[in-house]
Design a protein that fits this description.
mainly alpha, elongated, D-Maltodextrin-Binding Protein, domain 2, 2 domains, 445 residues
Length: 445
C-alpha cells in the first residue's frame, strides 16, 4: 500500500472507531426521521375533538357552521352570561358569540364577533371558526342582493383549482410533472446539509493538522512521507469518514421513513379508507376529512415521484467535491498557524463564497433558472450549495456536467495552492503568520 494510502487508512479507522462516530451514526437518522415523522405522529395522536358552542343573536350562522373531525359546533339559545357560566363549568372548549348589530348590518356584525374560552385558543381553531363565519356572512350578503345562497354553496364546492405544472417534452407518453412546493423543501434541506457538512468535516481537517503540528507528531511523519502526501491522506481519509456516515444516515433514515409510511401513513390515508368514509357519509358531513385524506394521499404520491436516483448521487458528488475543495484550504490554514485561535483571520476570507452561496439560496429558490443562479451553480466555490438548490427544479444536463467539471478543476487548483502553503507552514513554529507571508510561500518553487 502507498504511503498516502496508509495515511488515508489511519485517518479513516481512527475516526470511525470512535464512540462519538458510532453513536452519532445511529442517533443521526433517528433525529432526522423524527423531524418529519414526530410532527405527523403527534398531530394524529393529538386529534382531540373540541366542542364549540355558538350563541348567534343574528341567526346568520344558526345551524350553518360545518363541523369537522376535530371541531364540533353546537348551538345555544340562552343569555350571554348564562352561556359563559355553562362554558366555565362544562366540557365545552370555547363559546362563539355573534351579537346583533345596528339594523343587523353585516359589516358591523363581523367586527363584533367574540370568542370566549377557558384557556388560550389554538390558531387553527380560531382560523377555522373565522373562515366558517365569513362564509355565512358572504352568503347572507349575496342573498340580500338576490343571489341564491344554495347555488353559491354548490359552486364553492365544485371550484377547486389545483394547477399541475408539466415540463415541455416532445414525448407525449412521458407523464412528468413539477412540484414547486416539494422541490423547494428538498432544495432548501439539500443546501443546508451541504453547508453544514463542508464546515463540519473541513474544520475536522484543520483541527487535525493543528493538533499534529502542535504535538510535533508531524515532524516524525514528514521524515517518512512528503507534505503533499500527508495533506492528501488527511483530506481523503476524513472525506471517506464523512461519506460513510452520510451513506449510513441515508440508508437508515430511508428505512425508518419507509417503515413508517407503509405501516402508518399509507394505511391511514389508503384509497379503501377514503371510499369507506365517503360511503358512510353520503350527505357530505365528512367532506373536510375526506378532502384532508385525499390531499395527504396525493402528497405521499408526489414525494415518491421525486427523482431520488438523481438527487442522492448529486448530493454525494457535491458534498465530496465541496468538501475536498474547501478541505484543502482548511488544511492549509491548519498548517500555517500554531493554535486554533489564530485561524479566525484566515477562515472567514476563504469561506465567504460558501457563506454567500448559503445566504443567496433563498434568491436562487425564487428564480432557479435565472442568470445569477446559473453562474453561481457553475462557479466552483459556490456550486456545491447553489447547484444542489437548483437540481430539484430539473437542471439542464449540460449545466450539471459543466458544474461538475468546474468543481473538479476547482478542487485540483485549490489543492495545488494549499500544497504550496502546507509544505512550508507545517514545519514553521512560533511565528504569527500573515496573508503577506502566505503569499510569499505561494511563490516558492
Amino acid at each position: 500500500m502507498s504511503k498516502t494510502g496508509l495515511i488515508i487508512k489511519r485517518e479513516y479507522l481512527t475516526r470511525v472507531r470512535k464512540k462519538s462516530f458510532i453513536i452519532m451514526t445511529f442517533i443521526g437518522p433517528l433525529l432526522m426521521a423524527s423531524i418529519g415523522i414526530l410532527p405527523m405522529w403527534l398531530a394524529s395522536a393529538n386529534e382531540s375533538v373540541r366542542k364549540i358552542q355558538v350563541l348567534d343573536e343574528t341567526g346568520i350562522a344558526e345551524g350553518q357552521l360545518s363541523s369537522n373531525s376535530t371541531i364540533v359546533f353546537s348551538y345555544v339559545h340562552s343569555s350571554l352570561e348564562e352561556a359563559k357560566k355553562n362554558l366555565e363549568s362544562g366540557e365545552t372548549y370555547a363559546l362563539v358569540y355573534i351579537p346583533s348589530g345596528q339594523d343587523d348590518n353585516l359589516l358591523v356584525v363581523q367586527r363584533n364577533v367574540k370568542l370566549y374560552s377557558k384557556e388560550q385558543v389554538s390558531l387553527n381553531v380560531k382560523n377555522y371558526i373565522e373562515n366558517q363565519i365569513e362564509k355565512q356572512i358572504e352568503r347572507s350578503m349575496l342573498k340580500s342582493q338576490g343571489v341564491d345562497k344554495e347555488l353559491v354553496a354548490s359552486i364553492e364546492k365544485q371550484v377547486n383549482v389545483n394547477i399541475k405544472t408539466i415540463p415541455l417534452d416532445e414525448s407525449p407518453a412521458k407523464d412528468a410533472s413539477y412540484d414547486p412546493e416539494l422541490s423547494t423543501g428538498i432544495a432548501a434541506i439539500s443546501g443546508l446539509l451541504i453547508y453544514f457538512f463542508i464546515f463540519l468535516f473541513g474544520a475536522q481537517v484543520m483541527r487535525g493538522v493543528i493538533e499534529e503540528k502542535t504535538n510535533r507528531i508531524v515532524e516524525v511523519i514528514i521524515s517518512s512521507v512528503k507534505p503533499f502526501q500527508l495533506m492528501m491522506g488527511k483530506i481523503v481519509g476524513i472525506a471517506l469518514v464523512g461519506l460513510t456516515q452520510f451513506l449510513l444516515w441515508v440508508s437508515l433514515t430511508a428505512g425508518i421513513y419507509t417503515i413508517f409510511m407503509n405501516t402508518v401513513v399509507k394505511e391511514k390515508y389508503s384509497s379503501d379508507k377514503i371510499e369507506m368514509l365517503m360511503q358512510s357519509s353520503p350527505d357530505g358531513a365528512a367532506a373536510d376529512k375526506i378532502d384532508e385524506m385525499i390531499e395527504s394521499q396525493q402528497m405521499i404520491q408526489r414525494f415518491e415521484s421525486i427523482n431520488w436516483a438523481l438527487i442522492i448521487p448529486a448530493f454525494i458528488f457535491y458534498f465530496l467535491g465541496g468538501y475536498l475543495l474547501y478541505g484543502s484550504l482548511f488544511a492549509a490554514i491548519g498548517s500555517a498557524v500554531d493554535n486554533e485561535t489564530d485561524t479566525q483571520q484566515f477562515v472567514l476570507p476563504i469561506t465567504v463564497p460558501l457563506i454567500f452561496s448559503f445566504v443567496m439560496a433563498q434568491t436562487v429558490l425564487n428564480d432557479p433558472t435565472g442568470t445569477l443562479a446559473k453562474w453561481m451553480s457553475i462557479f466552483p466555490l459556490t456550486s456545491p450549495i447553489v447547484m444542489m438548490v437548483r437540481i430539484p427544479f430539473q437542471v439542464a444536463p449540460w449545466e450539471l456536467a459543466l458544474s461538475m467539471g468546474m468543481l473538479v478543476l476547482g478542487f485540483i487548483f485549490t489543492t495545488w495552492l494549499a500544497s504550496k502553503v502546507y509544505r512550508t507552514g507545517i514545519l514553521m513554529y512560533g511565528k504569527r503568520v500573515t496573508w503577506k507571508e502566505i503569499a510569499k510561500w505561494l511563490r516558492y518553487s
